[in-house]
Design a protein that fits this description.
The chain is mainly alpha-helical and about 190 residues long. The chain has twelve helices and no strands.
Length: about 190
């Protein structure tokens, strides 16, 4: 899952939000340097990623991106899932997603001093360009895809390739999300923290 899902699956717990959002930027045993409640968020992030990456529905969804994106297909699926979460009317309206995004930004800003330096830079752009709310829109997804392509060392395509896959298989990928996300939510609610 990508940023929006990790934030949402923290269920408004500030420490879990911080840990969940910074986890990919905390390497090796650095997680042990954080307060226990933030450590829980980092561990939760890793459990969410493992559940997502090994889930049969996610593996099936990745197949659509495999021909053009190879091993990066998992990254694109994470962003696609965030899009479907952002547009999931059983969870968010436009207004509640906007309010939630602001809540997450405020939480991260309040913990700015302990954010990993690279994530401080990411957060600056995330907040400035309102990434979490932007996942509602196809142009926001295209921008996210462009960012991945720009940073990927071994990806030989432009953002047009995964974006075309999303457009072509939109309804099928949405169905994958609707099957998968309730299972992930149930897993997180039973995860010890």
């Amino acid at each position: 899952m990508n940023y929006l899902a990790h934030a949402y699956l923290s269920f408004h717990d500030q420490s879990l939000i911080v840990g969940n959002m910074i986890a990919d930027y905390v390497k090796g045993k650095q997680w042990q340097e954080y307060a226990p409640a933030i450590q829980q968020g980092i561990q939760l992030h890793r459990a969410i990623d493992n559940f997502t990456d090994t889930h049969p529905v996610t593996m099936a969804a990745r197949e659509y991106f495999q021909p053009s994106c190879g091993r990066y297909s998992a990254v694109f699926i994470d962003i696609v899932y965030d899009h479907f979460l952002a547009t999931d009317t059983t969870i968010f309206t436009a207004a509640t997603l906007s309010a939630f995004s602001k809540e997450v930004y405020a939480t991260l800003a309040g913990h700015h001093a302990i954010l990993p330096p690279v994530f401080q830079q990411v957060f600056h752009y995330m907040r400035q360009h309102d990434w979490l709310y932007g996942y509602r829109f196809m142009d926001g997804i295209y921008k996210s895809f462009s960012g991945i392509v720009h940073r990927a060392k071994y990806l030989e395509v432009t953002a047009d390739a995964p974006f075309a896959v999303l457009e072509e298989h939109y309804d099928t990928l949405a169905a994958h999300y609707r099957t998968f996300f309730p299972e992930l939510t149930a897993f997180v609610k039973t995860y010890p923290h």
